[in-house]
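Q: May I have one protein plus its fold?
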Amino acid sequence: MATTDFSAEISALRATLSTISAVSDPEALRARIEDLSQQATAPDLWDDTDKAQKVTTALSQAQNELERITSMESRIDDLEVLVEMATEGAGDDDAETLAEAETELLTIRKDLDQLEVRTLLSGEYDAREAVVTIRAGAGGVDAADFAEMLMRMYLRWAERHGYSTAVLDTSYAEEAGLKSATFEVKAPYAFGHLSVEAGTHRLVRISPFDNQGRRQTSFAAVEVIPLIEQTDSIEIPENEIKVDVFRSSGPGGQSVNTTDSAVRLTHIPTGIVVSMQNEKSQIQNRAAAMRVLQSRLLLERQAEEKAKKKELAGDIKASWGDQMRSYVLQPYQMVKDLRTEHEVGNTGAVFDGDIDDFIEAGIRWRRSKRD
C-alpha cells in the first residue's frame, strides 16, 4: 500500500504553482513575447547585429520561461491521472505505475522549487547578467589551484543550464592555477542566482604540491557584480581614470599577442583596478574594462547606500562572514555552506558544477534575512 498521500501532495503542488503564477504573471510574459516577436520579424532587424541578438535572445528566454510555467499545470494533471490508474487495481502493473508516479512527483516538486526560487529574486539588480571575479587568497599554490577549480565549477554550472559565458581576464600563477580570473555569465537572473556565491571559500585537502603529502587549507574569494547597462548612467570623468596598456600573456608568460592590446584601468578615487586582455584590440579591451569598472562602481554605490541605511537603523553588523563555504576533501569528503547549513558528500559533483541546491538554499536564506 502506498505511503505517499498523493491527494495532499498534488494539492500542495497546485497551491505552489498558483503562487508562482501570481508572481511570474504569465499574461505579462505573453504580452512581452508578442512585442519581442514583432521586433524579431522587422525587416531591418539585422541591420544592427547587437540589437538583433538581444531581441532574439530575450524572445527565446521569455518563451522558455512561459513554457516552464504553463507546462507545469499539465504535468500535475498527468500525475493525477497516473495516480488514479495506479489505485484502480492491485496488480504488478499498478505497483509499477505507482512507482512511476512517485518518481514524477519528486521531479515535479524539484522543478517547482526551482521556479519558486526565481520568484524570490526581486532585488534591484537580480535580473541582470553577472560578472564573476575569483581571486586566490591565503594558501600559496594551493589557493591558486583552488581559484582555478572554482572558476571551472561556475563555468560548468553555466554550461549545465545552457548559459553562455565569456572569460574577460585571467592572471595565471607561476607554478599552477590562477591569481585571478574574471568572466561574464550571460543569462537573465545570473546575478540574482550567483550573488549568493560571493564571499570567502575554503578548501581542505592533501596538497598535490606538497612532496610530504601534508594537509593544506587554502582560500579563494568570489566577487559577483551585476553587468552594467547603458540605462544605468554611471558616468566616470576621464581625469579619474588611469589607463595602462600592456602585452597580453598566457600561462608561463607565453606571448599571446605581439601588440600592447591588453588594458588596465585604475579608478583613482576608489583604487578599483580592472584588467582586460581577452579581446584582440586595445579598443575592445578598454570598452570591456570600462563596462566592468562601471558595474563595480554601481555595486559599490549600492553598498554605500545600504550601509548608510543600516547605520541610521543602528545595525552595523556584517551580513557575510569571512568564510561562507568549506570544501573538505581530506580526511572526509564534504561541501558545507556555513550560512544555510546545506551540505553534500559528493565533492566531485559539486566541483563539476552541481551547485543548484547550494544556490537555492542561499537565495532562501538571504530572503529570510530580509524579511
